[in-house]
Write a structure and sequence with these properties.
Layout lengths: L2 H22 L6 H21 L7 E4 L2 E4 H18 L5
Helix pairs in contact: 1-2, 1-3, 2-3
Length: 91
């Protein structure tokens, strides 16, 4: 995997993480947290889809690696909701 493939993968993970954060309504952090949320969401969503034998809807293949976009957003929503429950917003 080249540097450009990795950069594109980071951008896609950031977009998925920011979509999940905006859907949940919890955003404590910036771009880096969105990227981390997108990658963790891909892990959680991929595990859920394999565990329950669910189909992959929208997968992007970059540099020989696959990134499940829909499952990444679903997993990131779950992860962000857990973060929102653990660390509530301050008033």
């Amino acid at each position: 995997m080249s540097f450009y493939h990795f950069l594109i993968l980071i951008i896609i993970a950031g977009i998925c993480g920011s979509i999940a954060q905006s859907l949940v309504g919890f955003s404590k952090g910036g771009c880096v947290l969105s990227i981390v949320t997108g990658f963790i969401g891909a892990l959680i969503g991929g595990w859920i889809s394999k565990h329950f034998s669910l189909p992959d809807f929208f997968i992007i293949h970059i540099g020989g690696k696959s990134f499940p976009v829909v499952w990444s957003i679903i997993g990131a929503i779950i992860f962000t909701a857990i973060l929102g429950a653990l660390f509530p917003r301050s008033k």
